[in-house]
């Protein structure tokens, strides 16, 4: 690592800086390419999250109308075990999979409660109206 | 809602209970089908997260070797604006998209720091060794 490395500690990676430090220009180009991959993954992830919350919203309406509680611990235990297994298969730290599960399940339950409080009306979640 | 609805407040949805309450059997069947969709979405999401963390791990190695800091606020501002826009297009509450971003970026930065502390060795993240 060069003596100039500390200059970089709080800087944004851009092409002007890369030109001033030719030795890092290659790393900058490679990071830029990887970031495009990350952005594409995020686009797909957002599309999946949109479909997931549309689906859990339907579950929320059915639960509210049938009088079921938002929480279902047996279902959650199943999801914990399943996502742990899938994460290992995919080469993902299972801790990350559990954080994902906790995030989506917590938010879905909050929305189920809002639907129940609104007497089974999923329109309560429509933030785009 | 029937007077028996309170029986359901803390119960798990299963077919035995559905048989005892025929009026809710249809809702249970519909929830079961929706849960399969949710599980399929989660499988895809875990695969994407696995690829995302593999990619950010590569970024972490490049940053550590070049002496770049794990944090890049300009990049984060870009991601915040972009994911907000994509979420609205997809019909997802932008608040959920921001929670997703915060989760993955926070975890990626922690892992970048671990790689930097290990002198650029991504093996430090290998929880499967």
UniProtKB/TrEMBL annotation, chains A, B:
Molecular function terms from GO: chorismate mutase activity
Keywords from the named record: Isomerase
Pfam families referenced in this protein's UniProt entry, alphabetically: CM_2
Chain ranges passing through the membrane: none
Biased composition (Polar residues): 1-15
Domain Chorismate mutase: 25-116
Alphabetized SMART domains for the sequence: CM_2
Domain of life from the UniProt record: Bacteria
Name by which UniProt lists this protein: Chorismate mutase
Species name: Bifidobacterium longum subsp. infantis
């Amino acid at each position: 690592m060069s003596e100039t490395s500390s200059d970089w500690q709080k800087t944004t990676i851009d092409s002007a800086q890369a030109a001033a430090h030719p030795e890092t220009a290659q790393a900058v180009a490679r990071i830029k390419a990887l970031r495009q991959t990350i952005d594409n993954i995020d686009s797909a992830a957002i599309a999946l999250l949109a479909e997931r919350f549309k689906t859990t919203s339907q579950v929320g309406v059915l639960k509210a109308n049938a009088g079921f509680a938002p929480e279902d611990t047996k279902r959650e235990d199943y999801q914990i075990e399943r996502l742990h297994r899938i994460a290992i298969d995919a080469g993902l730290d299972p801790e990350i999979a559990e954080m994902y599960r906790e995030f989506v399940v917590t938010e879905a339950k909050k929305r189920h409660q809002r639907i129940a409080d609104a007497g089974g009306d999923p329109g309560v979640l429509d933030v785009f109206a």
